[in-house]
Queue: 4 jobs
Job 1
Amino acid sequence: MKKSDFYYNLPEELIAQHPIEPRDSSRLMLFNKETGDVSHGVFTDIVDKLNAGDCLILNDTRVLPARIYGTRTDTGSTAEFLLLNQIEGTTWEVIVGPGKKAKVGRTFDFNGKMSCTVKEVKDDGNRIVEFNCPQGSFFALLDEIGQMPLPHYIHEELKDRERYQTVYSKHIGSAAAPTAGLHFTPEILEKIRSKGVNIGYVTLHVGLGTFRPVKEDEITAHKMHSEHYHMPAETAELINRTKRSGGRVICVGTTSCRTVESVAGLCDSEEIREADGWTSIFIYPGYKFRCMDALITNFHLPESTLIMLVSAFAGRNNTLAAYDTAVREKYRFFSFGDAMFIY
């Protein structure tokens, strides 16, 4: 398969530049993966589409204010740092731009609050740096000086940081939001529970590798970056119980999907178990889903690994036809855009 097999034409004006208010007022495309049929509603309709005995799997990661700006201590020139993965303690893997400023041994100051030293330059150009925080804890200082790492296609300033967090975010560590979850409100979640739908949580810290463009023409040559995940024992048991009773496992977002499918791939039996580790799973057409039965997701970039995942679940032709309909109906696309429920 070629990456061009997953291209669709998207007018730039359909790329959502700001979150809609309230969260649950976004549009919702209802997409039958077996027939390819689509219908249209609003996100609050999702309550009616879930059944007692289903379980909803949410990714409770929390986004770091991961973009910080430092000045070289020897020249005073500025560089942008984007935090990717915590290696250990205050040692992090980062992207630095421009990279030529961040050679091994160079030091940078951040607003007089903390500093860092470049320890290693990796083969892919990312840096390993060690932060020094004499004035307080690293995460408290980061919260003070950091900016939300909004995707490159969002050009408007985000006035409220919490609008790039889900209402159930808990474990800090992501470089990007699990955006399918941005539509949920506490009220929607309570209505879902009241209907007899169980809710389980996983954690996958979203890395920017998820959104890295596919550069290779042949998609199987693309290498995914690893992301850390945790499948709690109670969520694993909830999924197993749901499967045994004939309910559906409904993932909110591609990150929840990749977590449950990664864990299912580790297990010898049909039942899954608690797990903690790193995944670089790449899901594209031909993949056999082991756990997920339905998916709530946003609309993804052309030729991205995420539209490939959706195509694996719903079929490439059905998916591209649904996207063409979304363009024609002027849905809002990408991180702050509308949602689809694929069932």
Job 2
Amino acid sequence: MAKIVGIGACVFDTLYNIPTYPTEDTKMRAHASKTAGGGPVATGLVAAQKLGEDTAYIGVLSDDNGGRFLKEDFEKYGVNTEFVEIKSGYRSFASVLWLCADSATRTCVFDKGDLPPLELDDKQKKAVADAELLMVDGNEMEAAVEAAKIARENGTRVLYDCGGLYDGVEKLLALTDIMIPSEEFALGVTGCPTADMAAKKLYKTYSPEVVVITQGKLGGILYDGKTITSYPIYPANVVDSNGSGDVFHGAFAAGVAKGYDYIKCCHFASAVSAIKCTGVGARESVPTFQTVKVFLEENGYHL
């Protein structure tokens, strides 16, 4: 069985590399375009798989062009798809992204499609119970909460990629062991003015093992109930930042599976995310474990 399983968004992305942010009601020629798999948990699973861990996606996909692409993309990278249910006649979750060269930013417009929500069957529930780690991202909320309860009952740790302030997040936060919110999420859900204060409030309110707040170009902080510890962003010539947060969470999960302590997971995930940003494509640019190890050593950190 897979060591890491995930429930969350799986998105058919179309990416356009553009020189600068376009002016409204004009035309612009892109440098390049491509299709790719996306979504926080889905891309995180690919990252963990490429870093040497066994992973599986639990979810519902359409049999349209987007859904077929997404299933094949998982399989290309070795992510187990035996827990994926295929539904006919539905529209896939899809997005269009502009990757802007002069500002190194990305802009996303998405359509969530019309697939029915995931309802866990016995086989999917067993996959959660047998795993070491369950990754969730707030999408498929009812199934994610149910799976998190199963995880709690069976010693499977829950890693929550907290990116969107969805309805019901409090239920999922209460079942989380490894809480990794963006700074925007952390400040929004707590009402605190600083990341440090937000980390402490999240820890006090929901009692996870650890809170790790990601702060983009600033790196981030870790709070374990005792100490606030900062971790850095590692140097990179950014070509494509899209999916860097998703890759961070997947790399963090891989670090946990490898037995690293949480601050080492932060450094490892930060390095993986930095290297990913040097290539185009959130999934295909995820490096190998050996590449990450060498990169960290070159930057003064030893796993």
Job 3
Amino acid sequence: MQDRLQHRFAQPRLLQQALTHRSFSAEHNERLEFLGDSVLNLAVSALLYERLATLAEGELSRVRANLVKQDTLHGLAVGLQLAPLLRLGEGETRSGGRQRPSILADALEAVIGAVHLDAGFLAAQALVHRLYQGVEINPRMQAAAKDPKTELQEWLQGRRLKLPVYQVEAVQGAAHQQTFQVTCEIPELGLSARGTGPSRRAGEQAAASAMLQSLPSRPTP
């Protein structure tokens, strides 16, 4: 895996943790995934800033949403052959977790977070650039449908408000069949909404969707 990533870990345990699902061990990859999500967004944002110099902010956000969505990350994880190296609990393995898109996408984000902790942002950014070398990036991607998180972000940015804050409130169910309860908050508007999903990512999208339902009735700040 280090050869495929083109990164030799000074702290190999970070890579091991990045590939560990919560069903396998208490020392799992969710914190690394949280970090990797932010690193990925920054690295992709910088990439788009360089490549798509004529696009406006909202259009760049839409292209980025296409590049960091679960389907895209799942494809990149398959290309890296992450699945055979995932450390999963017995129940999760039996239920097909090794091929589950959400688990593979989350593990890839965790790997990016692990590289960032191991060698800094520039190393993680270089990894992201290598991962996306074979992914077509062009202005036409802006026509793709917006996901709820992107739509909410654009609504807030259009009104010069701060981005929403997402927080996992609870994780319920067996390790191989979990439900994530996520809260989406917009402190400046005093708004909060909840959503649930089979992964943190899905829970955030559900919470953002619930938040969007409450926005049309709000006066424009």
Job 4
Amino acid sequence: MSKDIKRIAVFTSGGDAPGMNAAIRAVVRTATYHNLHIYGIVRGYDGMIRGNLRRLETSDVGNIIHRGGTILKTARSEEFRTPEGRHLAHETLIANDIDACVAIGGNGTFTGANIFSKEFDIPFVGIPGTIDNDLYGTDYTIGFDTALNTAVDAVDKIRDTADSHNRLFFVEVMGRNSGFIALNTGIGSGASSVLIPESSTSIDDLISRLKKGVKRKKLFSLVIVAEGNKSGGAMEVARQVKEKFDFYDTKVTIIGHLQRGGSPTVLDRVLASRLGHSAVDALLNGKAGVMVGVINDKVRHTSFEDAISKEKGVKQELIRMAEILAL
């Protein structure tokens, strides 16, 4: 154990993701096991600036592993983007004798941690908590599996009404600028087509696929649209398709923030627990400026720079498979 680290702060930042509480629990209990003092920063970087910290004991994280959201709350802080805001945040950490921080979040969270740790001598280790699954350096991010299961469950229900009414449904799922949720939802729900940022599918190509379905006497179709799709979201794609192809009664469903909430799946709970434990171990072993992730079932450390700048593309074989299975 590093003799220099006696007090650790943990916080969640950016969009919430199911499993964040499980990660907090793992950080607190691992830190307590190593006789460290552990503090929670409420409302992310905004709370760091305003000194909103509280001591966390083992009992404080009891009965939270199954809960969605985050007990530490989360926020996006424009003030932290400024040198003055980061200076205030540093003063808070120094005033509370914080030796190191565990940041749970996504791209924006790690961008802030990367800048801050370069400006001030306080080590940060990150835990990937985002439903988008878009961070380089880990096969899966905390919250992705739960969001995916929520989306597939919603599409399964939409399928029932689509089948009953001979309808074409465009279903928009979250994911920011990545298509991980959309692609896997499409495969898992047996959708007719999937539109994602990583693969260019024109409106004409989509209509051609839909017409092939009509020739096979397909009574309904489901099209999954990633919110970052280059042709537009589900509403825009549906509008363009309807102008050229009106065989089906066309409807649009935007699942939206339902995907962020709910009790985390077992996969997310185990992943979060594993990464929370590993984050504390990383700090005690002198690691800083890194994100802990799991690649091929092994814990790996990836620099913040790489995690936020390197592209984690969807697998081309999955895209091809989705197209084949949708025939």
